[in-house]
Prior knowledge:
Pfam families: Sarcoglycan_1. By secondary structure, this protein is α+β, with helices and mostly antiparallel strands.
Amino acid sequence: MTREQYILATQQNSLPRTEHPQFYPVGIYGWRKRCLYFFVLLLLVTMIVNLAMTVWILKVMNFTVDSPLVLQSDRNVTVNARNHMGQLTGQLTVGADAVEALCKRFEVRASEGGKVLFSADEDEIVIGADRLKVTGTEGAVFGHSVETPHIRAEPSQDLKLESPTRSLVMEAPRGVQVNAAAGDLKATCRKELHLQSTEGEIFLNADTIRLGNLPVGSFSSSSSSSPSSSAPRQTIYELCVCPNGKLYLSPAGAGSTCQSSSNICLWS
Length: 268
């Protein structure tokens, strides 16, 4: 290489380049871009299907905000409660024939105030409502004793205590009081009605005391005070008592006639 050629080549290398720099774009192109769009579209379709299935399940199961929760089953519905050890502490079963609750204590409370309306456990059953109303035609049947300080019928209704096949007993150590403030008091029996006081007396206090269907005693044949056949009709009688306590009527006279007509005591 001659000196001129060397100098010319050196000058060409030292001259600044006037060419523009090349830029390389960064991104996803080709089949990668198509795969990305496919997966994004597939994810969108999956989200739409899940949303539609959720709405369908809520519609079928009636899971709505304004409607109550409804649980349906062809056989029964059972709700269990367990403690932290997994032991069963309570169970509610709703079946076709019965509703069963298995727990230590069952309570029904009022929506306002939380007052206990009904509670039941192994020892007792408590009804805390202001009024217990039995609307059945046969009434309420109790196998054992009933303790209550007050028994009252509905307004304008009669109160009836009845034992169809056995006896009815009312006992109280300090007395039994039966009061009819605005009506009659009736005691009816088929056989005998006994009024007995072991230590006190039987007191009848009224303006008029009537004893109906009392037998009328007749004078004995040996009595000299027997009325004649021409005597007027007897309208006044004397109330007599037999030794056994039986009452009877005797035609009144100037004196007592109970002894003369006491033959009726022999028939009792």
